[in-house]
Amino acid sequence: MTSKVKKNILKLKESSTLAINEKSKELIKSGKKIYRFGFGQSPFQIPERVVDTLKLHAHKKEYLPIQGLPELREKISNHLFKNTGVRYSKDNILITPGSKEAMLLMHVTFNGEILTPAPSWVSYEPQAQIGSNKVHWLETSRVNNWFPTASELEKKLNKIGKNKNIILILNSPNNPSGAICKNLKELAQVAKKYKLIILSDEIYTDLSFDNSYNSISEFYPEATFISGGLSKWCGAGGWRLGFLAVPNGLKQFMNSLKSLASESYSTVNTPTQFAAVEAYEGDYEQYKLKVRSILNSVGNYVYNNLKSNKVLINPPQGAFYLMPEFKNKKFKTSAQLCDVILKETGVAMLPGSDFGFKPKKMLTRLSYTDFDGVNFFKNVKDYNSISEEMVKTYAPNVAEGTTKLSNWAKNL
């Protein structure tokens, strides 16, 4: 019998980040001690004023405009201008149910091919498949901080061929490496030369540990799309509030995105949009500074206690991820490596193969958010001074899981 499912959809599998979260919950429910280093979710509380604003507007049930609440789009426009110096008109901003949906809409709308560095977030390639767009991978290295150099990008583009519509996806700070791209200007110059479109996934950019906000849009505003939202810096992942900012000269693309949104989710839920106005309008710099400081301290604890001649790893620079590489000859794939680590230590991680690396490359993604962020946040009085002892006290699962993983790696 002919399959009733389209071939490009049959190729899809459940998102590995969501799958590891559910698997970890099941193992914990069965009584096993699991260190949840596989799922990346902010552990912190949503700022109180943002929650209060949601409550204040909870009674509002009317549909908002397809494109989103005008006041919210204006606040996001101001937010991007403040951080990048680039003015994305509120008329070119689309409010979406999470930044993931924003990127999916872009993939479905776009007619061309996708170029994404390895490593990249697990959903870029599947979303491109949904949009029937061919994907090209550009493998990076630890030496270059897990981002392509300008010459590597140009060489790859020449290999792909001329006269093609191409989206280059950049994500900094990066999921899964936690690294920040330091050569945005050079990459922008190549992108401009080859007339690329750039999708700048800036969902973690407010969580850069150097307390700066760097966007490739500063160097190539005419063709850089920006996606972002509340899930990471604001701790509101389950609220599903994201946005896509479209370059001001691409009105046809914006209109098509809006039409697609109207035929899929209609509009993002009303109370959350009003709460998001407060999130983007209010002054939450102190909140962000404390969140960044805690994450930086926890990330450095993991880095300092895991790095060895058996585990190669770069220090954390942003978000809440590290990407350790295990030197061994025992395992055939990184997926097998992760399965054995989970079985023998209780540490749940994701294999590098889920993020675009070849299966034989023994890389994993480690998320260091398995702690009570509300309690940790409350007990930090001076965010400039968070000791290892505080990490052990307020992030015990992270500390214990790191020890288990480090001891396991010594026997490789």
Structural class: alpha/beta
How many domains make up the 3D coordinates? 2
Q: Which strand-content bin applies to the residues? A: 5-15%
Query: What is the rounded distance between the termini?
Result: 49 Å
Specify Rg, calculated over alpha carbons.
21 Å
Helix-residue proportion:
40-55%
- Which residues sit in consecutive blocks of at least 5 with pLDDT less than 50? none
Coarse shape: globular
Annotation field: number of helices: 15
What is the correct CATH architecture of the largest domain? 3-Layer(aba) Sandwich
CATH class of the largest domain: Alpha Beta
Describe the structure.
The protein has helices spanning 7-10, 16-29, 48-56, 70-84, 99-109, 124-130, 150-160, 184-193, 251-262, 270-281, 285-306, 334-345, 373-379, 388-394, 396-409, and strands at 35-36, 93-96, 113-118, 134-139, 166-171, 197-201, 224-229, 242-245, 311-312, 321-322, 325-326, 347-348, 350-351, 364-367. With 412 residues, the chain is α/β, with parallel strands linked by helices. The protein contains 15 helices and 14 strands. It has two domains: 7-45 and 285-409, Aspartate Aminotransferase, domain 1; 48-281, Aspartate Aminotransferase, domain 2. It has a seven-stranded mixed β-sheet with strand order 2-8-7-6-5-3-4, with helices on both faces.
